[in-house]
Amino acid sequence: MELKEAIYARRAVRAYHPKVLPKEAVESLLQASVQAPSAMNQQPWAFVVIQGAELLRQFSERAKASLLESMDSHSPLHEYADTLRNPDFDIFYGAGTLIVICAKSAGSNAAEDCCLAAQNLMLAACDVGLGSCPIGFARPWLNRPEVKEELGIPSDYTPIFPVIVGYPKGEWPPVARHAPQVLAWITSANYTLSA
User: What CATH number is attached to the domain comprising 154?
Assistant: First the structure.
């Protein structure tokens, strides 16, 4: 698949076969991920790989309970409260593999760099016919100190980008995108330096 084709074909897939990705496939995605640019080439990312649809289903229940427990009525997530209370809703959508991209605390723009690594990972997954989806609902739970300790994430690392990867169920059509909003287009011909 050409890069431009992968950019336009990538979708947030929200239904998966529970099959776990082979280790070699995960390693290939991680290798693509670390090819991302990073500020001052600090490469501030580290990864946690969690596999098993049933294990992820258990983690989903824990993450939902944590979100509901900490949510107040002013939270932007409040509109999802009923969804999070639904016992049939799995925040990992039945996927068998979750990759959590974590940022090392020392580093300039580490969170942004981890997001660049995540984009590489998702495009690489699309290239080989896999689905992926960022899971923002998981991030607050993953950042709880006791959960970080349970998953082997050092206290000075921050889970930034949880993303499920796996074998999609069905086809995922394109989602309409807004045209780019260009706030300004400045050239030397139309710009005067201020004093």
Answer: 3.40.109.10
